[in-house]
Amino acid sequence: MKITSLLIASTAALASVTVAQAADAIVAAEPEPLEYVRVCDAFGTGYFYIPGTETCLKIGGYVRVQVDARSDDDFGGDAGYRTNTRGHITLDAKSDTEYGTLAATITLEANTNSSNSYSITTPDGTFDSNSVANNDFFLDETFIELGGLRVGYFYNYFDTGLPGETVLSDAAPFGNGGFGGDTLNNGIRYTYDAGAFSVYGQVDAFDSQDGWKDDVPGTGRGQDEIGINGVITGKFGGVTLDFFAGYDFDRENAALASTLTAAIGPGSLGVFAAYSFGENRYFDASEWTIGAEYAIAVSDKFTIAPGVQYWDNITLVDGDFDDGDAWRVGVTADYKITTGLSAKATVNYTDVDTGTDSADRWDGFLRLQRSF
């Protein structure tokens, strides 16, 4: 009897202690699993997965410090120099879908001392000029892509051109009354790329807010309009050849252009040519132009590229080309200091003859750029 009572008492005591401990127990919460940033190598180097998604993101850009200099000229310019620092940021997002690669690009840029300027002889014979400074961040190329389809704000063919700083694809020789090309606009493009052969077709919406190429009294500029353009590109070993055509519906004029690059000897030869049927937003720097450069690879780090270009019939009056010509010669040197840091210097001489006025100018710059 005593043993039975002792067992019952012991069991009750243990139960009470267990209940008391259970009441006082602190249960620690399970830690949330950490998701580390994963490298995405499906679209090239530099991409990483945005945590919690299957979207790959790449952050790039550059910081550029540059000093520009030029001599005096006969069109109202002053000799001197200008310094500028630029910040350029690009965000690229990509992911795979059942329709192909879905991509989006956002590009922002700002300059401490930059201006978009123009000078033009209007149809009534008056001389007009303007300069628009831009110190704040502004939207550069920004678009959406799905497969071969691109919509948004992006450059057309005339912003490409040769890597040196002498042959100009989207600009005119100074003071000639022409604007060159309107290269950055809202548009829609489809590209078919077969590797050695590619072709794209594009519709441009030339908006009146495009800046320095618009709102010039007496020229018909400053109104919304539509243009179409296309490029065919072929690659044959070390040779790349492309052909461009663009048509401005508002001015009812077209422009043609072609670029040839070929690996020859210790460098690369580049030739650029363009022809304009009259005033248009793709190219109206002159009736026609041709230029060439040869980029010589002196070493793995140092490249030097002499170049020359000629423009004919550079005076634009009432939408048609009249007379005058211009030529330009120069040299550009590039040096890779280390990974991500490079220097570039150029010096050019330009001579312009409009038939009634002539001018010549030396210009150049020295640039240091950190890319990432």
From TrEMBL:
One of its GO terms (biological process) is monoatomic ion transport. The keyword DNA damage does not apply. Its main location: membrane. One of its GO terms (cellular component) is cell outer membrane. InterPro entries: Porin_alphabac, Porin_dom_sf. The keyword ATP-binding does not apply. Belongs to the alphaproteobacteria porin family. GO terms for molecular function: porin activity. Forms passive diffusion pores that allow small molecular weight hydrophilic materials across the outer membrane. It comes from the Bacteria. Consists of 16-stranded beta-barrel sheets, with large surface-exposed loops, that form a transmembrane pore at the center of each barrel. The pore is partially ocluded by a peptide loop that folds into the pore lumen. Residues 1-22 form the signal peptide. It is a multi-pass membrane protein. Keywords: Cell outer membrane, Ion transport, Membrane, Porin, Signal, Transmembrane, Transmembrane beta strand, Transport. It is found in: Cell outer membrane. This is Porin. It comes from Aliirhizobium smilacinae.
